[in-house]
Design goal:
The protein is mainly beta. The chain has one domain. The chain contains one helix and ten strands. The chain is globular and about 50 Å long. The termini are close together. 22% of the residues are buried.
Length: 139
């Protein structure tokens, strides 16, 4: 819970500063998750990305990794904790043809104890599906 509160504070602090202007020589990737869930940019081509609010990448192929946090039911059976669990999933999306000046969008949603994610172009066509690398409570 403490890690989630810290991530939320960092995200809120990040929202206070404006996004940088989009570079027309790069592709811009926005992030979207339903209310109450948190989707953050994490890595580009296995290198840490400095701002969790978006990606901006050169044209061509890229491997994007995001962190997706959400609550899931913790069970509730006899002797089990019925409190919701705060899960974090690491999701990788690979796309081979990012284009300069184009806007893209990664959307994620929870699915029981896991997650799903998609990369869309400006016409809302699915370009890539995310691969969940891992999910857990200790991230």
């Amino acid at each position: 819970m403490r890690a989630y509160m810290l991530a939320s504070l960092l995200l809120l602090g990040g929202c206070a500063s404006p996004l940088p202007p989009a570079d027309p020589q790069q592709a811009w990737v926005n992030l979207y998750a339903p209310a109450g869930e948190l989707l953050m940019a994490d890595r580009v081509d296995r290198q840490r990305w400095p701002d969790g609010r978006y990606f901006q990448v050169s044209p061509g192929p890229h491997d994007l990794q995001v962190r997706f946090q959400f609550e899931a039911n913790g069970g509730g059976g006899l002797g089990m904790n019925s409190e919701p669990l705060r899960l974090t999933c690491e999701i990788r999306l690979r796309y081979a043809d990012f284009k300069a000046g184009q806007q893209y969008r990664i959307e994620a949603r929870s699915m029981a104890m896991s997650a799903q994610a998609w990369l869309y172009d400006e016409q809302r066509q699915v370009l890539a599906r995310g691969k969940v690398l891992r999910c857990g409570t200790a991230y």
